[in-house]
Amino acid sequence: MKTTIISESSNGSLHPVTAQLVGVASSMGEYITVICPGGVGSSDAAQISGVTKVISVEGDCFETYDCSAWSKSLSPLVEGDLILSSSSAIGRELISSIAASKGIPVVQDVISLTDGFSATRTIYSGKAIEEVSISPPCAISLRANSFESAGEGGSAETATIDVSQEVSVAVKKALARANERIDVSDADIIISGGRGMGTPANFSHLYEVADVLGAAVGASRAAVDTWDEIPHSMQVGQTGKTVTPNLYIAVGISGAIQHLAGMRSSKFILAINKDPEAPIFGVADYGIVSTWEEALPVLKNHLAELLSN
Amino acid sequence: MGVAVLLKQVPDTTAKIGISGGSVDESSITKWSISPYDEYALENAIKLKESGYGDVVAITCGPARAAKCLTEAAAVGVDRLIHILTESSLDSIQVQSLLSGAVKESGCNVVMCGKQAADTNSGSTGPGLASSLGFSCVGGVTEVSMDGGVASATRLGPSGLEEVEVGVPCVFTFDKGDSELRRPNVRGIMMAKKKPIDTLTPDYFGVDASDSKVSITSQSSPPEKRPGQKFVGSESVPEVVNKLREEANVI
What we know:
The complex is a heterodimer of chains A (about 300) and B (about 250).
Chain A lengths: L1 E5 L2 E2 L2 E2 L2 H12 L2 E7 L4 H5 L6 E6 L8 H8 L7 E5 L2 H14 L3 E9 L3 E6 L4 E7 L3 E5 L14 E6 L6 E9 L11 E5 L9 H11 L2 E4 L1 H6 L20 E5 L5 H7 L4 E6 L12 E4 L2 H17 L1
Parallel strand pairs in A: 1-4, 1-6, 4-5, 5-11, 6-10, 7-10, 13-14, 13-15, 15-16, 16-17
Antiparallel strand pairs in A: 2-3, 7-8, 8-9
Helix pairs in contact in A: 3-4, 5-8
Chain B lengths: L2 E5 L1 E3 L7 E2 L2 E2 L7 E3 L1 H15 L5 E7 L4 H9 L4 E6 L6 H15 L3 E5 L10 H9 L2 E12 L2 E8 L2 E8 L2 E5 L11 H9 L2 E4 L13 E7 L8 E4 L4 H10 L5
Parallel strand pairs in B: 1-6, 1-8, 6-7, 7-13, 8-12, 9-12
Antiparallel strand pairs in B: 2-5, 3-4, 9-10, 10-11
Helix pairs in contact in B: 2-5, 3-4
């Protein structure tokens, strides 16, 4: 079976999820093509074990993101019974657009996939789990960090294709730079704050712990809705991001059903809340009944000490 | 001219999702609402209408209960209501074929919807529909205004928050922004009750609703968490940190 993978990039290089996509494709068949939009990361993609061919697609249209222009450039190069992408915002848009142009169905944000194809995904932002069976040809986006990566050591041939595609979306003005901190969707460890933090300025205490751990900082919907300083991109839960890190630390978050839906599948959960009855303790592996003012300084110092050894 | 806004009726985000016999038990859902991201699209569509950009047509695809979200949309100022009545679970191509038929019939050249629905969390509809209609697509926007045939939108792109321009026809998918859906007034609610709904079937659009390439084999509740360990006071923090390393092995 032939599989085509749309590679994922971040900050001008190949995103590690691309190797996870190759890992899945390798378990499904032998002929694997990786398409790199804008040529980003094509030499790294060629070194992923199991890749048959890399297509570096280059052209002016890749200077800024335009879903339609990118999709029209990539779609003619996509072949096979299975198309894979990451379920990032751009990954989802591109694969939806490409699948529609080919008249094949797309299933998004899959967390487990077996030959044939049977796919598992969360619905209602994690309140339930669904299994679907899909008849090929089809397109599937996969959630990052849910699958084993393929190793290195490949030496795929790379073809460069220049495309000339009219762009319809013009970027006029940058209003704010992307947050340079790691995004909650990509992080192994997340520390999130809720309205219990009292003021948005107090999130600085979460950032201090995050810096020690290399963690991302998230927030509850209550915090995002209450404070303009806390952007929606940090929101974990229904109408925010569904996350599955190794460790999720919830601070001053009571645990509304929408929040629990988005983080309950984390491998381990540590909750810090002054209210012993807070629902967050119902999903926490470790719960500490304490104010954040008392707990966070001890947490930061103890982590720093432990991790410096 | 005109804006088509796509609405999906979903269980309210505060609702618990019950499972019975291997599938979601709809009778356990006490409240249905317009999917939250679609509400942002609806509010922006109404604002465009107020700025003089043609009528707003609301389109939904779903079972009989979904008509309620059209009436809610009429109460805040939508001009025309289209309900594509479907009872079975559809794949992305079927949904996009139905919606693209309805958009073409509405004559609208701007389409607005949420970036994803709160039930499936997929996000396939907006970009897929744009592709099948041959429209441009701008995803994850929080605000759209029109000047002549050119739209100006604020989106969260890969390099940050940016302002983009795009010509029509175009599909915009909405992220959460500052413009929450207005509340209807009493007159709006009364008028909406009388507003006719054009109810159309998949047959009307030449779509075979039984031919889904994606079938749901089972739905289940997430695994129960094992009971956790609870500690009291900040003096327990060092012990918990040690457990994160020794027991959980996550730091």
